Amino acid sequence: MLNDESIRLLREIRDLLVPVSDAFQGEYEERLRILGLIEEVVNTGARKRVYRLMNGLRTQAEIAKKAGVSPAMVSRLVPLLLEAELIDIVRDGAVEKPRGLYHLETGRPIRRRERGE
After folding, report:
1. Tens of pLDDT along 44-60?
2. In 10 A of CB 18, how many CB atoms?
3. In 3D, which of 45, 117, 41 has the Cα closest to residue 82?
4. Which of 27, 41, 58, 115 has the most C-beta neighbours closer than 10 Å?
């Protein structure tokens, strides 16, 4: 059972944490939005395998082969991911290579090293 001193300390801790949580509220809400989009669009095991392979280095055909799905499935998924702003396209000459922008599990942006680092 909590005594008055324990309750007072817990309230003090809560009051100290409020400014910290407020500072990250916008980032937290954005991550929740991204996770909702991921849940809505990347909602099967096959789609998750495909998304994880979208690193900007593979063509849609290469992704399909590596993920064990049809090229048509990848072709249908790319516009959905683009519309949800979960991927972008890396252009390599005339070749387009999809690149995932967020981690599936956390909704955090994927950080990439710049060339030459």
Report:
1. 999 999 999 999 999 99
2. 9
3. 41
4. 58
Number of helices (H), then strands (E), in the chain: 5, 2
d(CA 29, CA 83): 20
Q: Of 29, 26, 65, 51, which Cα lies nearest the Cα of 110? A: 51
Our measurement of the distance from residue 105's CA atom to the centroid of its chain's CA atoms, rounded to an integer in Å, reads: 7
Residue in 80, 82, 79, 55 with CA at minimum distance from that of residue 66? 55
* pTM (two decimals): 0.78
Q: Which residues of 32-60 are buried (b: 16+ CB within 10 A; e: fewer)?
A: eebbebbeebbeeebbeebbebbebebeb
Average pLDDT, the chain: 92
Q: Identify the helix (H) or strand (E) that includes residue 92.
A: strand 87-92
Please give the distance of CA 97 from its chain centroid, rounded to a whole number. Answer: 18
Return the CATH fold of 4-100: Arc Repressor Mutant, subunit A (1.10.10)
